[in-house]
Amino acid sequence: MDVAFIIETIAKIVVILLIFSALAGLGTYFERKVLAFMQRRLGPMHVGPYGLLQVAADGIKLFTKEDIVPQNVVKPIFKIAPVITAATAFMASAAIPFWPQFTAFGYTVHPIVADINVGILYVLGIMAIGLYGPLLGGMASANKWSLISAARSAAIFISYEVITGLALLAPLMMVGSLSLIDINNYQAGGITHWIVWSQPVAFVLFWIAAFAETGRTPFHLVANDHEIIDGFGTEYSGMRWGMFFIGEYANMFFISFVISIVFLGGFGDGTIAGAVQLLLKVSFFFFFFLWTRAAWPDIRPDQLMWLCWKVLMPIAVLNVVATGIVMMF
Amino acid sequence: MFEAIAFYLFAALTIVMFTITVMTSQALYAITAMAAGMIFISAFFFILGADFLGAIQIIVYTGAVMALYAFGMMFFDTTRNVVEKRTNPRIVFVLGVLAAVMVVAIFVAPIVSNNIQALYPIQENVGNSQAVGMVLFTKYLVPFELAAVMLLVAMIGGIVLAGKKMDKSLTLMKEEEIDGLDEGFEPEAGGH
């Protein structure tokens, strides 16, 4: 193992961390602006031009706020829970190809930290661990809202992991590989080769499950403001609370990348045009998260479970069986 | 060299994590340490090049099994320490040591007698998941199918046990109807 490889990997990790931490901050700005636009408000306007510096102001506020650890909490677990959310979100990004490989100054760069041959499985597995942030945070803070939120997050994550897994199974059967780069190359032939045309059901199922995996409206039950205050985040303040936030927004970006790569052709044949297309697709999916939040109310927990086990799961199983039958004959 | 460093690092971390799981009297420490230990175990699979098994280890043990434990923890006040009831610590010690010795013997015996052989040839040019699939559907087909049947039995059993009164939704009922439900239900259940 040569030194260049180590340096390259560390550089990639640092770049991804910096870009997506910044994007997570900017994501809050986009969210407020999009919501404001849809609700005929202005949103943040006072700090900087069009409120652009609001992100910096929020960041400074979060960093300099007093770090309160309430009296009856289980202190080490309470402190480590936000780190788990943020860390797992970034760990999942290790297997995501963000950009096709390119040559700069005579050196070929693969913009993926680790091209392991079970990429998609790894991404989903690490995102599943993200569950421990809300779960442990909720159970460690001596607060009943937090505890309800922890119970909900465990229920939602376990249920919707079934949907993500089964929905992805059908496209993976067609591709025959778990590597995100192989999945991308399978669709390199252009828009007609996209998996979404042959697996529309799986695409919609995965998209719905993505809302549950990231805990976004209409599945925002883990921190539903009007019934359980801020859920697992109720007792948190300052940067610890901010870490939950960074994790949530980073997860939204990463799951948008996964949807775009698996179903919508990713970066296509690897040219610059394809790469820009990938970013546009990701932006659309991120925007869709915000759009849904403006347009839809939250649903009840029992409706969420009903949707998962009685509607989505049978459809997902039928989709896998149908794909199998079509592939056999 | 990297493999060696990684192996010893993760070996130490795993042992520390599971020691915490066993020794602590705080339920949340135990569950967190156990989840972390399960993730560190997956590192060994990655070091050995078994990426598929490593990812599966994370998904199954940390994502699913541990989350079910967490469900069980909802019934406790996790912010307090658990007071263990030790009636006879000597028996616990003796049984614990015996179990540990047996596990070590089971794993050391084939190594000492040089009796470890790879019974299945290594396939060239296939990925990790394909290799697992080939072994599962050829050599281990019968155990695999048996496990599937057992899981099916467990699933049906679970649905039958938990499925009573699933047609009624408490959320959609009025307060009086729920009270009426309790009164009607009480005599059947009997003395609980």
Description:
The complex is a heterodimer of chains A (329) and B (192). Chain A has 329 residues and is mostly helical. Chain A has a two-stranded antiparallel ribbon. Chain A is globular. Chain A has helices spanning 3-38, 54-64, 75-92, 119-129, 132-140, 144-175, 180-186, 195-198, 200-214, 225-228, 238-263, 272-295, 301-328, and strands spanning 102-104, 107-109. In chain A, helix 1 crosses helix 11 (238-263), helix 6 runs parallel beside helix 13 (301-328) and helix 11 crosses helix 12. Chain A has one domain (66-100, 114-328). Chain B is mainly α. Chain B is built from 7 helices and no strands. In chain B, helix 2 (27-47) runs antiparallel to helix 3. Chain B starts with a helix and ends with a helix. Chain B has a domain at 1-84: Four Helix Bundle (Hemerythrin (Met), subunit A), CATH 1.20.120. Chain A binds chain B through residues 1, 72-74, 76-77, 80, 116-118, 121-122, 124-126, 128-129, 131-132, 135-136, 139-140, 142, 147, 150-151, 154-155, 157-158, 161, 177-178, 300, 302, and chain B through 2, 26, 28-29, 31-32, 35, 39, 46, 51-52, 54-56, 58-59, 62-64, 67-68, 70-71, 73-74, 78-79, 127-129, 169, 171.
Quick take:
Chain A has 329 residues and is mainly alpha-helical. Helices cover 68% and strands 2% of the residues of chain A.
Give the helices and strands, then pairings.
The complex is a heterodimer of chains A (329) and B (192).
Chain A: H1 3-38, H2 54-64, H3 75-92, E1 102-104, E2 107-109, H4 119-129, H5 132-140, H6 144-175, H7 180-186, H8 195-198, H9 200-214, H10 225-228, H11 238-263, H12 272-295, H13 301-328
Helix pairs in contact in A: 1-2, 1-11, 1-12, 2-11, 3-4, 3-5, 3-11, 5-6, 6-9, 6-13, 9-11, 11-12
Chain B: H1 2-23, H2 27-47, H3 51-73, H4 89-112, H5 128-137, H6 141-162, H7 175-189
Helix pairs in contact in B: 1-2, 2-3
